[in-house]
Specification:
Strand order of the largest sheet: 5-10-6-11-14-13-12
Largest sheet: 7 strands, mixed
Strand content: 25-35%
Radius of gyration: 23 Å
Helix content: 10-25%
Order of helices and strands: HHEEEEHHHEEEEEEHEHEEE
Number of strands: 14
């Protein structure tokens, strides 16, 4: 495993902050409010255009003891090439020019509109990171598609049945483990805003009519790469009635399957899971506890794992077998 340095831990937000790119910084900051994965997971440039090619290497027992005047055999790992692609998400924010003219503050009125749209982009991104379907031309496989079969190693069965179940994703984060990617050569981690100013658009209800709007265009290009299989472990089939204490026990047991050496350990789940964990903290305060993240925000931890909220994770998942 490569030695970690500060660059291995830089999220997209930190990269654009250091690049002094105010628009991308503001966009990612807004998206982070609806996609908490952006708070922890570093972003790296893809090495093959819009795709990233990495080598997944199996670690086994290597090396032999040697005595004088005797040799040892050759050590060789098993490798597998993995290829991940990025997705391109765009949105336009448009407000009627005549309407905002009468607000007294055109920029504030425009900002109010695009803040809501960018936060919505964060939700779309979060949903794709979890439920993305690589069979579609405009998406990539999200975490669920990559972890869709019980195997006791990277997909753990919590025992629930039926179709009112949810999941937790335990992630070991870093350059050689689980991280985000953006296209090669893309500026500002693939995040861009263009202020198109006043433009004329077609009336959506009447193709023969037009009107003037202030228009902003947003683009976010992103993907994920999972290099070490155990760096993303799904606890699936979690039933609604599972107690907080039982949930903590499953998380602790599963956490020992996570690889060593990650820059950050994080757990992604919806609010129903986090509520159970917070309540369990009253009885298991030595394991479940509140602690500030690097930005000073107090969040729940299970041992050294940050518990992040991603409400796009459903409570109506089907049973995984």
């Amino acid at each position: 495993m490569a030695t970690l340095n500060m660059n291995d831990q830089m999220t997209a937000l930190e990269i654009v902050r250091r690049a002094n790119a105010p628009d991308p910084y503001y966009i990612i900051e807004l998206m982070r409010e609806t996609n908490e994965m952006l708070a922890d997971v570093p972003a790296f440039e893809a090495n093959n255009g819009t795709k990233n090619i990495a080598i997944q290497r199996t670690i086994g027992r290597y090396g032999e003891h040697r005595i004088y005047n005797r040799g040892v055999g050759k050590a060789a790992t098993q490798t597998k090439k993995i290829e991940d692609r990025t997705a391109m998400m765009e949105a336009y924010a448009e407000v009627d020019a005549s309407m905002v003219k009468h607000t007294g503050n055109i920029e504030q009125a425009r900002r109010s509109e695009y803040i809501a749209i960018v936060k919505g982009m964060g939700l779309t991104q979060a949903d794709t990171l979890i439920y993305g379907d690589g069979g579609k031309d405009d998406e990539f496989d999200g975490l669920m598609a990559r972890r869709n079969k019980i195997d006791s190693k990277i997909v753990i069965d919590a025992g629930g049945t039926g179709n009112n179940l949810t999941s937790i994703y335990l992630c070991s984060i870093g350059r050689e483990m689980f991280h985000l990617i953006y296209p090669k050569g893309a500026k500002n981690v693939g995040v861009e805003r263009i202020d198109n100013g006043l433009v004329t658009i077609q009336d959506p209800d009447d193709s023969k009519k037009k009107y003037r709007v202030y228009q902003d265009w947003f683009q976010v290009e992103y993907g994920i790469s999972v290099i070490v299989p155990e760096s993303v472990i799904r606890i699936a089939n979690i039933p609604k009635g599972m107690s907080g204490d039982d949930l903590v026990d499953v998380i602790i047991e599963t956490s020992y399957k996570m690889p060593k050496g990650a820059s950050t350990y994080a757990m992604y789940s919806n609010d129903s899971i986090l509520i159970k964990l917070d309540k369990a903290a009253r009885d298991k305060g030595n394991v479940v506890h509140m602690q500030a993240d690097p930005w000073g925000k107090p969040i729940t931890h299970v041992r050294n794992i940050r518990c992040r909220q991603m409400d796009v994770i459903l409570n109506t998942e089907d049973r995984v077998v």
